[in-house]
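Lab notes, practical 5.
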Amino acid sequence: RRVLFRSASELERIAQRRLHPPWSDPNFLVLRSRKTIFESWFSQIKYPATVLDIGGRYQPYRPLLGNRVGTYIAIDLLQTPLVTVIADGQQLPFALETFDLVIATQVLEYVADPRQVANEVLRVLKPGGTFCLSVAAFAPRFADEERWRFTPAGLRSILSGFETVETVPELYIFGGLLRSFNLAANSLASKNRAIRKLYGVTVCPALNLLGLGCERLNLSANDQFSPNFSVRAFRP
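Output from the prediction step:
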């Protein structure tokens, strides 16, 4: 069993940065949008919910559930102080109809068979249970282990066993393109420490502010360049 050597305080810092990203983060726009989407969805979860977090080594979105959690179980391939069970999302070690809510953020792009994960989630969800996930769409490769990118039609196919599938772009065309440019420029700037620091306090926040303005003005409903999709699916 592989162990991820991170302290609880370091995990909390990572989680907080994802839940409350700074303006200097080139992922600010998608992280901020995902928080808003998940916060809305989680507000509809009834207490006391039995929750499964697939890939839950950091659990940045757990606080959005507030006091609605009865039991929270996190699985991951790597051990951290927050992981309850070492397991693969393609083979969940839980009984039929165990959970009210399953969460999987930025996980499906790493697994060999996303449809198998969806089938396993369907199996362990209670009738009427909810599956909330986020997946990469128009996005660069962040790690060599990544295998997939997703479209709304592909997501509906993977989640075909669910009763209802709601797919929400985390950004539309202008925000998506600005985020992609920000990531590319940040990657180039990171080769020099001084340039990276300067970029983080000048260009990066400026692009984030411009992207946020474009999203708030609803300049376009074109989601072809959405970097990620948040998805909510209900078990029949």
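Observations recorded by the TA: The longest helix spans residues 173-189. The mean pLDDT is 95.
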